Amino acid sequence: MRLLFTVDPEIEVPPKTYGGIERIVDALVRHLQAAGHELALVARPGSECPANRFFPWPGLISQSTPDTVMNTWTLSKAVRSFRPHVIHSFARLAYLTPHLRGRIPIIMTYQRYPTMRTIRMALRLAKPGVVTFTGCSEYIARRGRPAGGEWYGIPNFTDTDALQFNAGVPADAPLVFLSRVETIKGADWAIEMARRTGRRLIIAGNHATSGEEGAYWTDRILPCIGRDGIEYVGPVDDVQKNALLRQALAMVVPIQWDEPFGIVFAESLACGTPIISCPRGALPEIVRPGIDGFLVKSIEEGCAAVERVATLDRAACRRRAEECFSPRAVVAQYLDLYERVRTRLGTAG
Q1: Which spans in the chain are helix H?
Q2: Mind listing the pLDDT tens digit for each residue in 127-179?
Q3: Which residues of the chain carry a pLDDT beneath 70?
Q4: Is the pTM of this model over 0.85?
Q5: Exposed, middle or buried by CB within 10 Å (0-12, 13-18, 19+), for 264?
Q6: Spatial separation of the C-alpha atoms in residues 250 and 173, rounded to whole Å
Q7: Distance CA 272, CA 255 (A)
Q8: For residue 110, how far is the Cα from the chain centroid?
Q9: By 3-state DSSP, what share of the chain in percent is helix, strand and coil, each rounded to 5?
Q10: Every domain of the chain and the residues it spans
Q11: CATH 3.65.10.20 fits 2-157+327-345, yes or no
């Protein structure tokens, strides 16, 4: 099967630093190629993803109208040259406008909240059955369904083979907060839970230096660092992340917003480390309370979860990651969807 992927032009694939969507697309390309499929990628110049064909975007700003015009034309040229069986877009829906009336199935994947007006407009332009939508969680798919169209929740995934499982940790193992240190991630909750339960807490992640989030770091987090077992280690790379998660009693990221997915939660499970978070966004799809961790609605509930988390089976956490959030599990869902949309349009075979 020939599959053409598109990614927004701001970040290379794979990303050189931060870039969750770009990391997912890079892994998808590699795993689909290993399964014998031919891949083309339209992405930022300088991308090093090993697709069979690469087409660089000329415009580097998604929200720029002139760049959108240039990128729409570039995508059309890529389609004519590569002749894909399926177009799978992680980029702007606007780039797909010339193809909405065609016969090539289009899958539009949302890694964040869908724009309802744009979806409705695309569906009015599209030939029936051409466009199918997916969200990085069922939560995101539910958010998009009121705009119309066919929606599927297909989760993000993590490289479970690269993340090392640890079947047990010492009784005094630390808690770990691994995320951007900002209000919506709940670092202040994690600190208070650790304090009240007498646990060490390692905080890893970058933080703002200005604005409201800079003030959050300066006023709410920084005064706690170096006291009561609270440690800050800064941003971490993949090797450091693996080591941090493996040694942790639990990963505590008590989100204060509706998280679309959150790859770090799948990474924690892959290491066998239970999760303590909140029942918002996609978290109820990731964490089974009392099995993979706990979803709490207050700091008091969080403290109770910390006291119970050592009783959870770390092997069950690892199995959850392998069965639901591994490349093997998620790529199989996409391949099934590719075949389904091709059959619907009569382009399979």
Answers
A1: 20-34, 65-82, 116-125, 138-144, 187-197, 211-216, 238-247, 263-270, 283-286, 299-308, 314-324, 327-345
A2: 999 999 999 999 999 999 999 999 999 999 999 999 999 999 999 999 999 99
A3: 18, 349
A4: yes
A5: buried
A6: 9
A7: 20
A8: 10
A9: 45, 15, 40
A10: 2-157+327-345, 175-324
A11: no
CATH class assigned to 175-324:
alpha beta
Topology match between the domains 2-157+327-345 and 175-324:
yes
Q: Side-chain half-sphere of 272: how many Cα atoms within 13 Å?
A: 14
Q: Is 234 helix (H, G, I), strand (E, B) or coil?
A: strand
Give the other-Cβ count within 10 Å of 191's Cβ: 25
Tell me how far apart the alpha carbons of residues 236 and 204 are, in angstroms, rounded to a whole number.
Answer: 7
Tokens 């030939």: give the residue: 127
DSSP 23-72: HHHHHHHHHHHHTT-EEEEEE-TT-----SEEEE-S---TT-HHHHHHHH
Q: Which two tokens stand for residue 124?
A: 């009015």
DSSP state of 174: P
Closest C-alpha to 339, from 87, 86, 32, 157 = 86
